[in-house]
Amino acid sequence: MGGSRRPAQATAARQPHEYRDPKPHAGGVQAPAFPKDAVPKHVALVMDGNGRWAKERGLARTDGHTAGESSLFDVVEGAAQIGVQYVSAYAFSTENWKRSPEEIRFLMGFNIETIHRRIDEMDELGVRIRWCGRRPRLWKSVIRELEIAEERTKNNTRLTLAMCINYGGRAEIVDAATALAEAVREGRVDPKDIDEELFASYLDEPDMPDVDLFIRSSGEQRTSNFLLWQSAYAEMVFDDVLWPDFDRTHLFKAVESYVSRDRRYGGALPNVVSAAPRPETP
Ligand code: FPP
Question: What is the pTM of this model?
Answer without folding.
Answer: 0.91
